[in-house]
Design goal:
single chain; Hypothetical Protein Ychn, Chain: A; 4 helices; 35% helix; 21% strand
Length: 117
């Protein structure tokens, strides 16, 4: 099964990104045959910037994204959204890529399930 998650919120402003990643990791744990794809839009594009530093005991979305990527997940961020925030040319965490609306449209068509956060 192909599962697409579209994330829109900033990584630490609410728990939407955190909860999406928790669910993605559970899919990979309990349904290892599933392909997890995550597309970041709006303020969520900042979630794949490297070297995040969070207080002890607080979740860290960089580590969570790495866990998803290490199990074959795919992560792309919206190019237009990244450009609007001035981060298109910044280094991304390993495995994350810049994506386009055309690629998102293709992922939607190919997906069995589409979830938005």
């Amino acid at each position: 099964m192909k599962i697409l998650m579209i994330l829109n919120d900033a990584p630490y402003g609410s728990e939407k990104v955190y909860n999406a990643l928790r669910l993605a990791m559970m899919f990979q744990k309990e349904h290892a045959e599933s392909l997890i794809r995550i597309f970041l839009m709006a303020d969520a594009v900042t979630a794949v910037l490297p070297n995040q530093s969070t207080p002890d005991g607080f979740y860290n979305v960089e580590r969570m994204f790495k866990a998803v990527l290490n199990k074959g997940g795919q992560v792309k961020m919206c190019k237009t959204c990244a450009e609007a925030r001035g981060i298109k040319d910044l280094k991304l965490m390993e495995g994350a890529q810049i994506g386009t609306m055309s690629e998102l449209a293709q992922w939607v068509i190919e997906s069995d399930k589409v979830l938005t956060f």
